[in-house]
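for the writeup, i need someone to sanity check this before i put it in the appendix. the sequnce is what the collaborator sent (i think, or maybe the updated version? ugh). structure was predicted straight from it, no edits. if anything looks off just tell me and ill rerun, i have time this weekend
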Amino acid sequence: MDMSASGYHPYADELPPRVTATVDWSAEGKQHGHLNVPYSSNESAWGAVRVPITLIQRFADNLGNAVMLTGGNHGDEFEGPIALSKLARELRPEDVNGRVIIIPALNPPAVRAATRVSPLDGVNMNRAFPGARTGTVTQMICHYVTSTLLPMVDGVLDLHAGGKTLSFEPLAAMHYLHDQRQFQRNLDTLKAINAPHSLIIDELDAEGEIDGVVEGAGKVFVFTELGGGGTATPNSIALAERCARNMLNHFEITQADGHGSPAAQPRTRMMDTPDANSYVIADDNGLLEPLVDLGEQVEAGQPVARIHNIEKTAAEPAVYHAGRSGMLIGRRWPGVANSGDCLGVIAIDTDR
């Protein structure tokens, strides 16, 4: 672990971030604090947006490894903020060898509003990386993560869910990478996290995601999609907690007890979305009729959804078909669909 935060540093020649932290990065023990993001508004001329952060570090025999756990990147995905808030309270310094940075709500304005994008600036945080020092609130948070936090850690777990517009079979995921050694490190971590489904994904749109800056720095990156529909369940929260603890165990920052070890958990199902045929995209506007439930197997060419014309009762619905055989691992949640919406995601089994 690079304690000096002098490794990958795309902003090394620039001024320091405008965001500041109330925690002491050199102190051992457990600290609860904030990132202070300048925000001058009509309500508060010299105000700031405060991002809660917990830093736990103890270096027993050596520097140990370092991991950052984040949730609330999108404000309508609640498993991460709940699970990481619990972990921030429960994890003790004496249980740690290394460094753990926990940010339950990376985008507090969005989490408070329960919206995907921030109500302060209309920015989707996970399309705003690497951020901007003099940008909006969201962009300044992204800049601080990229320039200051990322160099301090070896790996990042970003907890997501489907939010208000998608729902998923619970999964952890990673990307295809050209660097085979980095790909293998990510794959080993993905398997260790041991979500019910482990997905190697070719995303429709990855530009500006935190994923890219972490991977570009040569670090381990895994994210989750746990449930959806704009809510959280006891099961989805428990899965988020399990994924976070398995990440820490894998990096040997904590040690699993018998109940919490991967050997005591059901084995993950390795899956793949290798290309655009894995996605079902709407060309029409109207009422969405799902024809397949999440988790069901489909065959290539099988109808998986219909979109009904709201205005014309005589109009036949548009029928959407699976582009490949596999399992429906994700789908659109609202009952209304518009052209361009993702209606379904189909994953295939892989022996990786």
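The chain is about 20% helix and 30% strand. Helices lie at 79-90, 108-113, 137-149, 180-193, 210-216, 234-250.
thx in advance!!
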